[in-house]
Amino acid sequence: MSTTDSTFTPALVVIDMQYDFVYGSLAVPGGSTIIDTINSLLKCPFAIKLASKDFHPADHISFAKTHDKPVLSKIIIYPPGKPLNNRPLEQVLWPVHCVANTPGFEFVEGLDREALDYTVHKGTDPGIETYSAFRDPWHLANTSLHGILESHGVTDVFVVGVAGDFCVKWTALDAVNLGYKTWVVRDAVKSVSDAGTEWEEMKNKGVRITNSDEVKKLVTG
């Protein structure tokens, strides 16, 4: 498959390559080691190249400090404005991270941000956690990502970044559910846990797992 195939319109989606996720308060192990690989993909002729950024208010629901609880403890959250028995979800509580317009929110140094066509903000509502770059877990509110991809006629979404077991995974699963052929580039992803269960979960739900060399062949033809 290549760009000569009229049914193939690829997009590169870079997930959360921000200072706090690479070097800061919620650093993903090995996050800095994938910057060069991501930059090499950003040089490829994707139809469109986008990045997501967590854009949290200072009192975001995912912060342990907001609840005066220990980091990595868990709470149950509910969709705002809905009955308390309506799709409750378990929420891990994280260190304060990626607060809007702070240094930790910025793209990590070394990422080729000039190659990006769009940046999508997520996690902007203080009462809703949003791992996926497409929408919140209850599908109450969408980011701009799906609309941008649709407007460019994208057929295939290639996902890279951090963290593989959280925001990368949920973005990829939503991409499949929204009808995109979805690929996660394994050597351009790092995860919080080393358990690796996210890869089998994604494959079982229709995500294709690939590597950067194969992606370059696909996209450049």
UniProtKB/TrEMBL annotation:
Biochemical pathway: Cofactor biosynthesis; nicotinate biosynthesis; nicotinate from nicotinamide: step 1/1
Database matches in Pfam families: Isochorismatase
Limits of the Isochorismatase-like domain: 11-213
Keywords: Hydrolase, Metal-binding, Pyridine nucleotide biosynthesis
Tagged with keyword Hydrolase: yes
Keyword Hydrolase attributed: yes
Entry's EC annotation: 3.5.1.19
GO molecular function: metal ion binding; nicotinamidase activity
GO process annotations (BP): pyridine nucleotide biosynthetic process
Family annotation (InterPro entries): Isochorismatase-like_dom, Isochorismatase-like_sf, Isochorismatase_Nicotinamidase
Top-level division of the source organism's lineage: Eukaryota
Family: Belongs to the isochorismatase family.
Protein name stated in the entry: nicotinamidase
